[in-house]
UniProtKB/TrEMBL annotation:
<keyword id="KW-0961">Cell wall biogenesis/degradation</keyword>
<dbReference type="GO" id="GO:0106418">
    <property type="term" value="F:UDP-N-acetylmuramate-L-alanyl-gamma-D-glutamyl-meso-2,6-diaminoheptanedioate ligase activity"/>
</dbReference>
<comment type="pathway">
    <text>Cell wall biogenesis; peptidoglycan recycling.</text>
</comment>
<keyword id="KW-0131">Cell cycle</keyword>
<dbReference type="GO" id="GO:0051301">
    <property type="term" value="P:cell division"/>
</dbReference>
<dbReference type="GO" id="GO:0009254">
    <property type="term" value="P:peptidoglycan turnover"/>
</dbReference>
<keyword id="KW-0460">Magnesium</keyword>
<dbReference type="GO" id="GO:0071555">
    <property type="term" value="P:cell wall organization"/>
</dbReference>
<keyword id="KW-0547">Nucleotide-binding</keyword>
<dbReference type="InterPro" id="IPR036565">
    <property type="entry name" value="Mur-like_cat_sf"/>
</dbReference>
<dbReference type="GO" id="GO:0008360">
    <property type="term" value="P:regulation of cell shape"/>
</dbReference>
<keyword id="KW-0067">ATP-binding</keyword>
<dbReference type="InterPro" id="IPR036615">
    <property type="entry name" value="Mur_ligase_C_dom_sf"/>
</dbReference>
<dbReference type="InterPro" id="IPR050061">
    <property type="entry name" value="MurCDEF_pg_biosynth"/>
</dbReference>
<dbReference type="InterPro" id="IPR005757">
    <property type="entry name" value="Mpl"/>
</dbReference>
<keyword id="KW-0573">Peptidoglycan synthesis</keyword>
<comment type="similarity">
    <text>Belongs to the MurCDEF family. Mpl subfamily.</text>
</comment>
């Protein structure tokens, strides 16, 4: 079958392309900008890419067109698709019908931590010898790829709440049919899709309705937003984690690098790993519960987690120059920004912590999070904020409570220049963005090395 994928360079749709290729289909695709790293993965798999959304890419006619959620009415390829009556579906539909049918699906959902938690879960199943498939919105260091078809019965999917396609405004996760469902947390986000938290909760209840009675829903013991979803109706057994939950963590170090895990008050194992923070201990509890549901012993889980290398762009150390360490993180919501800074602070102690933030998400750029953004950054000793000319709100005013710690720049080049001039040995620089941030990580490291060479 010839499958053509619209919007192929996103992590999810690129993953769909790689899964389709693994199933033996001929796969082609297009995107507005064909860019790495996904373009490199696709090219290595022999998938031909077309740049742009013109109609000519539908000649010769593919057997099936898979439509990404970035596609809109009015785009030439979309109009041609509809006018010609071609066979099409969404990415989540294709995943459900061609990959997930008949498999034990473990879905990881929630506002924060999905990528890391799904990566942990896939790694545990792999180390337990279950040969799982997975589709994750990032690249686990242990696998080096974001997706794998897998030979086993189990499939781990990062289940996000973004809409499915221009013709299906339900969240993507309603298509997956999980038997094991983790809901990590639930806050308002994606202001470009949802007007308030209630709309997100409505979609999560659709998800809850799809979990069978033989399945399991895993969630925090004390999350009012999740509790409100479940009280709308739940037909599946539940288990809880975190304070007051069935599964709990007892930190053995202040930074969360070593901790004991307990089930209903009984110690079941100890983890020592390279990850940091209370939030990652909670993620570990969620995957411990998920692994137990498929029959994996806690001892195996703890051993696998102790070997877990993490995920690219999640507190990833990108380099060190003259004692200055540069980290990359995907944080782009005030809660994620705060917990990431707190985790790094626990590790580095009194050393100077410098936060560099790009407000790239639609929600952040809309100003929805302005009331909590300064507090989220308050752990940092210095804050460098990139304010592009089209931001739409006054960053200096919104973050005024940070006082002399704040540096606002409308140019990435100027930001890097001042950051290099201000940096000193021992500084820990944390760069946060859910995009490429103009290649700032390498630009900063190169500038520090050039200064060091002189």
């Amino acid at each position: 079958m010839h499958i053509h994928i619209l919007g192929i360079c996103g992590t999810f749709m690129g993953g769909i392309a790689l899964l389709a290729r693994a199933l033996g289909h001929r796969v082609t695709g297009s995107d507005a900008n064909v860019y790495p790293p996904m373009s490199d993965q696709l090219a290595a798999a022999g998938i031909a890419l077309h740049e742009g959304y013109d109609a000519v890419q539908l000649d010769p006619t593919p057997d099936l067109v898979v439509v990404g959620n970035a596609m809109r009415r009015g785009q030439p390829v979309v109009e041609a698709l509809l006018d010609r009556g071609l066979s099409y579906c969404s990415g989540p539909e294709w995943l459900r019908n061609f990959v997930l049918q008949g498999r034990w699906v473990l879905a990881v959902s929630g506002t924060h931590g999905k990528t890391t938690t799904a990566s942990m879960l896939a790694w545990i199943l792999d180390q337990a010898g279950l040969a799982p498939g997975f589709l994750i919105g990032g690249v686990p260091q242990d696998f080096g790829v974001s997706t794998r078809l897998g030979e086993g019965r189990h499939f781990v999917v990062e289940a996000d709440e973004y809409d499915t396609a221009f013709f299906d405004k339900r969240s993507k996760f309603v298509h997956y049919g999980p038997k094991t469902l983790i809901i990590n947390n639930l806050e308002f986000d994606h202001a470009d899709i949802f007007k308030d938290l209630g709309q997100i909760q409505h979609q999560f209840h659709h998800l809850v309705r799809t979990v069978p009675g033989s399945g399991l829903i895993i969630h925090p013991a004390r999350d009012p937003a999740i509790t409100a979803v479940l009280t709308q109706g739940c037909w599946t057994p539940q288990t809880t984690f975190g304070p007051g939950g069935d599964w709990q963590a007892e930190p053995l170090t202040a930074d969360g690098a070593r901790f004991r895990m307990l089930h209903q008050g009984r110690a079941v194992g100890t983890v020592g790993w390279g990850l940091l923070g209370e939030h990652n201990m909670r993620n570990a509890l969620a995957v411990l519960a998920g692994a137990a549901h498929v029959g994996i012993e806690p001892e195996v889980v703890c051993q696998a987690l102790s070997r877990f290398q993490g995920v690219k762009r999640r507190l990833e150390l990108r380099g060190e120059v003259s004692g200055i360490r540069v980290f990359d993180d995907f944080a782009h919501h005030p809660t994620a920004i705060a917990v990431t800074l707190a985790a790094l602070r626990q590790r580095v102690g009194e050393r100077r912590l410098i936060a560099v933030l790009e407000p790239r998400s639609n929600t952040m750029r809309s100003g929805i999070h302005n009331a909590t953004l300064a507090d989220a950054l308050s752990t940092a000793d210095r804050v460098y904020f990139y304010a592009p000319p089209d931001l739409g709100w006054d960053a200096a005013q919104v973050l005024a409570r940070l006082g002399e710690r704040l540096r606002v720049h409308v140019s990435i080049a100027a930001l890097v220049e001042q950051l290099v001039a201000d940096s000193r040995p021992g500084d820990q620089i944390l760069i946060m963005s859910n995009g490429g941030f103009g290649g700032i990580h390498q630009r900063l490291l190169d500038a520090l090395r050039a200064l060091d060479a002189n």
